[in-house]
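Justification of resources, computational component.

The compute hours requested in this renewal are based largely on the per-chain cost of generating structure records like the one below. Each record pairs the submitted sequence with a full structure-token output. That output is archived, and it is also reused by downstream analysis tasks.
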Amino acid sequence: MQVSSLNEVKIYSLSAGRSLPEWLSDRKKRALQKKDVDIRRRIELIQDFEMPTISTKIKVSRDGQYIMAVGTYKPRLRCYDTYQLSQKFERCLDSEVVTFEILSDDYSKIVFLQCGRFVEFHSQHGHYYRTRIPKFGRDFSYHYPSCDLYFVGASSEVYRLNLEQGRFLNSLQTDASESNVCDINPVHFLVALGTAEGKVECWDPRTRNRVGLLDCALSSVTADTEIDGLPSVSALKFDGALNMAVGTSTGQVLLYDLRSSNPLTVKDHHYGLPIKSVQFQHQLDLIISADSRIIKMWNKDTGKIFTSVEPEYDINDVCLYPNSGMLMTANEAPKMNIYYIPVLGPAPKWCSFLDNLTEELEEKPESTVYDDYKFVTRKDLENLGLAHLIGSSLLRAYMHGFFMDIRLYHKAKMMANPFAYEEYRREKIRQKIEETRAQRVQLKKLPKVNKELALKLIEEEGEEQQVTRKRKQKNLPSLLKDDRFKVMFENPDFQVDEQSEEFRLLNPLVSKISEKRKRKLKILEELEAQGQEEEEEPEGKASDAESSESSDDEKGWVEEVRKQRKLLRQEEKVKRQERFKEDQQTLLKPQFFEIKEGEEFRSFKDSAKKQKLMKKTLEDRLKLEEKLGTLNVSDTTVGSKQATFKLKKTEQQMKQQEAEKQHRQERKTLRRSANHLKSKGGRGRLFH
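The structure output for this chain reads:
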């Protein structure tokens, strides 16, 4: 059983885990359960709750005892008895089922709308009657007061079949080219039809006239939505006498009050997929809408997401078990999913043990997969001395680092720094003491890290505060008091290295900018003291003088940067000379090398020859190889070049080949002499 949590809502997947093949015997299934822990721990709420290939529709009977599902292949209906937690019966059909409806409280009366325009009726014993409608059907609804079946499909007409009289009645003529879905209000029995043009037509079955029209396609387009093409109605559901939810083919769900033509809420799934199903959950005032990828539960008043379920396979249909927190889905996979969400309601009576099971799981929460692992970067591995484990099974690569076992990490950390805990303890004690000292009257002290930078910031703040007081402006926040830059004056890793090349090259520019800022502040103070209110030049100088001053400043800091670069080059030269002197003073010791077995030492000339060869161009090397006979270059019929190489042989291989050649020659001479004696008939003389 898998447990997931979204928005602090626990969702229990009761059909998670592998399913066993049907052709396995009971004995083999028991043997597998003993061996495999995952199979033993899985929860099989209803036995064989699956289809051979895919399931398309799933419904619950009104008494809550039977769950019926249709799927392929071959097209079939499976009925499950919840009291027995197993399959009651299975019926195979002639063609695939588009949708079906349970007319009775149990499984005794079922109507199927099939692909080949067939309408098939089943009774308790099985197949009862079969008829056809003029056009391909897409959906139908049952009108209980008149016993009429309303069929919609690839036609502008709505076909009516009366089950009491057993004949077709006059059809309803709509303004739409095609209709996708239909639903009948359970209170006042208003018939609603969802059309391919994105409109909902409402018909009164008593007068057989249209009484209302809603343009859902126009209402579904908002400022945030992106739509490709005209939205058509793909799902329809009534809630009570006045509320109606409409799902579109572009992934929007619209909630209507029948007294208004404008929707109360528009919810976008943001996937651009057709809405497959819309359900109402009355206990928490939620709407459960589903497309082929995700099931979303959201508040019908505010539109705020409550939680969502994203199965592994595409969704075909969703069924909410009445008055409970159980949710079932028909998928593009053999297994039909069952989810239990305790927040939505209690478990059904036939599986009340789920409440106790989930309560125990909440009391003893299991650790997630990542609790037993530590994420480390390549630098962390080098600090711990575990860089050699990269590529082994102990490290699993993930993003910019690796996952490793937390126990191995703690052991390595203890070995790399055995006094880490003591240092951590001292640091915590020091922080506690500093916190207590902060409550006393403090003198202005510079931080331990980046003292010069802090002093510079304090001086600049003091100068800026004087100007802002005179101008009566608000003070800007200080960098020293800002929590975002707090670590820069506490952590030694952020210490500015004044001897680094980057700092020395940037320092002239920074110093010039600070001097310019000081000058600007002085000029502003002088202007305010004189009381000049309207001036053409804000700095109190002519523009030519200002430009000449800025150009002089630029020349000055450029010269300083050049000086710093010269100094850096001189320092590098001195370092190189020192390294050269150290290299001369060091005495080189002779190194000994071991020669492999079967090889003889000739001289160091071979290595010198190889080095010379490597320096030559490829053309020169190929010519040399051709002269030696190890390379053969020839023209092919296509016009390109073909090169064949012969590997060089070692001296040992040459000796071995010569011995083999001599041995073959001796055998040939013996064979020839023996044949010569046989031809003369002197076999006996050879062995005489």
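Confidence is low (pLDDT under 50) at residues 532-548, 682-688. The two ends are 92 Å apart (CA to CA).
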